[in-house]
Amino acid sequence: MKLQGKTWKFGDNINTDLIIPARYMTAYEAAELGKHCMEDADPEFSKKVRPGDIIVAGENFGCGSSREHAVLALKGAGISAIIAKSFARIFFRNAINTGLPIIESPEAATAIKEGAEIVIDLTAGQIENLTENRRFTIKEFPEFLTKIVENGGLLKWATREKKEPIK
Amino acid sequence: MTLSEKILAQKSGRAEVKPGEFVLVDVDLGFANDLTGPPAIKEFEKYGDKVFAPEKVALIPDHFTPCKDIDSAGLVRILREFSLKQNISRFYEIGRMGVEHALLPEEGLILPGTIVIGADSHTCTHGALGAFATGVGSTDLAFFLLTGKAWFRVPETIAVEFSGKLPEWVGGKDLILYLISKTGVDGARYKSFEFIGPVISRLPVDDRFSMCNMAIEAGAKNGIIAPDSITLDYLRQVNPAWVSSHPDFTLNPDSGVTYSKKIAIDVSEMEPFVAAPDLPSNGFPVSRLSEVKLDQVIIGSCTNGRISDLKIAAGILKGKKVASSLRLIVIPATQKIWQEALEKGYLNTFVESGAAVSTPTCGPCLGGHMGVLAEGEVALSTTNRNFVGRMGHPRSKVYLSSAAVAAASALTGRITHPAKI
């Protein structure tokens, strides 16, 4: 699986209130939430971002509330993947469970600049920065999580495995 | 094994688990609120038509209730109709509900040694009674509705030992704000906090709830306290049947257990602690913030809206008036707490001091309703988060404190040490 897009850079501790403020949470459709994605950090973000674009962030991305609306808002805005130095745990599992590719790579998150054109090759485990002609290796995912992502999310995995007992 | 490892091992049918392993566990209680429930239900209904174990499910409309607009009324309606359809008896209607993390223990639904998941990040509150309790997303909850299970990576455990003598006006909220100021907002990321030591052994259950509630603000998966005589005294009030049917129940970490890290904190010289904007880790002793002028004070929430918080606040406010420059909003966390506060005269004290008293709701904590901030306004709140724009306008500010500091500050208009009142 290959993803190509332009990068948008954010700092440390980007919390879910910033990704999607609670005042918009009477909706839970990705397209509607996407209109307000990152609004309090950059009011123009949802207008500037293009389908396939990639967020590059610092430590603890997605900290705070458990709202899966944060993942939906990012998807709705067109974000195809997130590279960060680290992820907060509930955001991490929400991304896995709903099939949004997330890559923990302090090296890539530090080096890649805003506006770079990058390609993420999830199968080969590599990020290529086309703008600076530089490559980064992605750390291998635990097998259990890969299984969920490969099946297209937790419930698809669960219902497929349902034929056999869940171990 | 640590407390969390023991519970995860038992509930995944293993003799032992180690940090880093993935486990699929049987969940004892799973719940969601009016914001996280509807997307979970939508996802569930794509894959199944019958909830695996309706008796293990609770649905609590507490965030935007009493419904603040037409859309939020639509969200609660989804919970109500789903509960009826699926025979979920634990749907808590407005007038009988409370903020989820105050309500569920009060209902006797949180039990030591069990696994509790909630589609709300402050689910970690319930570790105060010795449960492995953690916040999950809506898809996790849909998976639980379908299968009765949840997946976890077994967390490493950080033991935090509190020793010394707790000074007057210092309680659970101050201890946890102090701890988070040391660890930062990601110092316990993916990990479990086990709170131990002589201060914890003597700490009242409400203070334990406040501490475990904010474990997530250090990035932790859960916070947990070994059940002891204080836990059992509490359980005897809320679920006597469980206590009498478990006469020999104990749950302790193994002796000689190795923790991934140990943090030792002596509380003897501590002052009440306040977190300044825009992170819960930005903590200071209260006296360092005495110049901060306030527009609004909130006493309530899953962190500090319990009866002991209201008792402390009423004790400080009795016979005095809220500063003319600000508004004080008091929100008892559950209907039962509201009624007890009424009977004990606390609500009368609040109203006479010039405060507004609300029905239970999460409302202002997340900038929903019942106390949203305008541009440039500053609030002191007994809630748990002070991120940019959390309580309203992106250029409003939130400070976090205990109910004692909040009540004292409501009288002076500035952040104030309760000893000065």
Uncertain ranges of chain B: none
Overall pLDDT confidence of chain B: 98
Low-confidence stretches of chain A: 163-167
What is the CA–CA distance across the termini of chain A?
27 Å
- Biggest sheet statistics of chain B: 5 strands, parallel
User: Strand percentage of chain B, roughly?
Assistant: 15-25%
Query: Largest interface by residue count?
Result: A-B, 42 and 54 residues
Helix content of chain B: 25-40%
* Share of residues in strands of chain A: 15-25%
Please state the oligomeric state of the protein chains shown. Answer: heterodimer
Number of strands of chain A: 7
Largest sheet, strands/sense/barrel of chain A:
7 strands, mixed
Helix run count of chain A: 8
User: Structural class of the secondary structure composition of chain A?
Assistant: alpha/beta
Strand order of the biggest β-sheet of chain B: 15-14-13-16-17
Tell me the overall shape of chain A: globular
Task: Walk me through what this model shows.
The complex is a heterodimer of chains A (167) and B (421). Chain A is of the alpha/beta class and 167 residues long. Chain A is 32% helix and 19% strand. Chain A is built from 8 helices and 7 strands. Chain A has helices spanning 16-19, 30-34, 45-48, 69-77, 89-98, 106-111, 143-150, 154-161; strands at 2-9, 54-57, 81-84, 102-104, 117-121, 126-129, 134-137. A 7-stranded mixed beta sheet of chain A has the order 4-3-2-1-5-6-7. In chain A, strand 3, helix 5 and strand 4 form a beta-alpha-beta unit. The longest helix of chain A is centred in the middle third of the chain and has 10 residues, at 89-98. Chain A is globular, with a radius of gyration of 16 Å. Chain A starts with a strand and ends in a 6-residue tail after the last helix. The relative contact order of chain A is 0.17. The model of chain A is unreliable at 163-167 (pLDDT under 50). With 421 residues, chain B is of the alpha/beta class. Chain B is 33% helix and 18% strand. A 5-stranded parallel beta sheet of chain B has the order 15-14-13-16-17. In chain B, strands 3-2-4-5 form a 4-stranded parallel beta sheet. A 4-stranded parallel beta sheet of chain B has the order 9-8-7-10. In chain B, helix 6 runs parallel beside helix 8 (205-213) and helix 12 (307-317) packs across helix 14. The radius of gyration of chain B is 20 Å and the shape is globular. Classes of the chains: A alpha/beta (167), B alpha/beta (421). At the A-B interface, helix 4, helix 5 and helix 8 of A face helix 2, helix 3, helix 5 and strand 6 of B.
